[in-house]
Amino acid sequence: MKLKTIIMALTMLLGISGCNAQTSNNQQVNTSKKMNAIVIFFSHAGDNYSVGNIKVGNTKIVADYITEFTGADQFEIVTHKYDGMAYNPLIQLAKEEANKGELPPYEGKAPDVSKYDTVFIGGPVWWGTYPQVMFTLFKDINLDGKTVVPFTTHEGSGLASCVNDVKKAFPKATVTKGFSIYGHEVRSGKSTVEKWLKGL
Q1: CB 47 within 8 A of CB 53
Q2: What is the DSSP letter of 80?
């Protein structure tokens, strides 16, 4: 599917969900239309910069917004390597992994992405790019011919090198320019995510 067609479908879907979100008696209406997409993401709960100890990671919240607005499926990259770590030891470990090019294992099997046209890829920015465990997964999936939409949560790094790194990992995909949002803003940033999706 061409990028233009995907964007048109997304715009229509968002319009439908906005216009038909409620009936006159305030009951939610579930649309049967669904974007042919998947959100692949890594999110870190626990001790985070600026937001403290959180039960749901910042990137998970953004991924959930994307799914709500587009109907996209989800695959969360899970590793227990960082469980229970305080922020400072965590970022030191992340720095060591990045410097050494380590590829930590993730739980379970990689998702079957063959049936999707669009793949959202999201994560926090750790030392200028996505966490290394995400690159482990990248080696296990083929996104040739897909439209890939990177997004990040951060506390000042923006997209960093994430878009370029996705382009390197998937040279035969069409990679969009990406989206970033401050981690401390995601809980009140649903409308920001919706505006970004409408503007793709």
Answers
A1: yes
A2: S
Question: Which residues partner with 119 through β-bridges?
Answer: 38, 148
pTM here is 0.83
The one-letter amino acid code at 153 reads: T
Give the C-alpha separation, 109 to 118, whole Å. 20
Q: Which has the closest alpha carbon to 115: 34, 12, 22, 17? A: 34
Asked if 71 and 35 touch (Cβ cutoff 8 Å), the reply is yes
What is d(CA 172, CA 188) in angstroms, rounded to the nearest whole number?
35
Per the listing, tokens 């049936």 go with 115
Give 50-54 contacts, CB < 8 A, sequence gap 24+.
50/155, 50/182, 50/183, 50/184, 51/183, 51/184
Q: Which burial class, exposed, middle or buried, applies to 110 when counting CB atoms under 10 A from its CB (0-12, 13-18, 19+)?
A: middle
Residue 157 has pLDDT above 50, yes or no: yes
